[in-house]
Predict the 3D structure of the following.
Amino acid sequence: MRDDQHRFLLLLGRLPARLTAEQVAWVINCQPHDIPVLVAARLLKPLGNAPANSVKYFATAELLQLMQDRNWLAKMTNVVTQHWQKQNQRRTRRTVIELATQASS
């Protein structure tokens, strides 16, 4: 967020009506690369019908409401954790296969 945007929002005293994926990540205390994971799991829904490679916006009011739901927070945490566990397992398997291939050569 640019410095002038930050100052304007401080003067306004509230969040904007829609947030980018990076801003959503700040609000829910996760990493920006976790937001597509949450969208794919249907735990977050972007506004409108944005094309795949475009900037996605999310409704602040909906996000604030979701943040009050302990069950949603638990699901969100579990989805992100499971996603990165699977990613790490894939990397480990790939490394083991590469090492085995190199050893047999």
Notes: Helices lie at 3-12, 21-28, 35-40, 60-66, 70-104. Residues 3-104 form a domain with the Multidrug-efflux Transporter Regulator; Chain: A; Domain 2 fold (CATH 1.10.1660.10). The chain has one domain: 3-104.
